[in-house]
Design goal:
141 residues; mainly alpha; 5 helices; 57% helix
Length: 141
């Protein structure tokens, strides 16, 4: 087994939180009936926390924003290839606040929500791959 490079504890904490958000997104979308608004919120949170964890792992601060494009910008200075993973998922930003309050637009279908959860998972996995580390605490998605 190859040794794991050391990444800062704070970065590990961000990735643990992202992992848990993905788990919650899966639970919400698979619930009967599906809770797609909650699934989408947690998918956005997972993507956001993954990117912030990446920045922290590189010794950088991160923007105080839920906007994935804003968070991606400084990350590209460390790894421009992240753009190809994150750009298709930028609409996740909308789900940070959409569906959180009464009177919001009609929720997406469970299948549409699953696709967005998958996009968030791709960002999480891309960050893990770039850090060459395992999922937090040996957990598995």
């Amino acid at each position: 087994m190859k040794p794991q490079p050391s990444i800062p504890e704070e970065a590990q904490q961000w990735l643990r939180l992202a992992f848990d958000d993905l788990r919650l997104a899966d639970l919400a979308v698979d619930a009967e009936p599906p809770m797609t608004g909650l699934a989408l919120y947690h998918a956005q949170q997972a993507a956001e926390k993954s990117l912030k964890g990446f920045l922290v792992s590189r010794g950088s601060g991160y923007p105080l924003s839920h906007n994935l494009a804003t968070i991606l910008k400084p990350a590209l200075a460390f790894d421009p290839t992240l753009e190809q993973v994150v750009l298709p998922a930028l609409k996740l930003t909308d789900f940070a606040t959409l569906y959180r309050y009464p009177g919001e637009p009609e929720e997406l279908t469970a299948e549409e929500a699953r696709q967005w959860v998958s996009s968030a998972r791709s960002i999480y996995e891309a960050v893990l791959g770039r850090l060459e580390c395992q999922e937090p605490s040996g957990r598995h998605l």
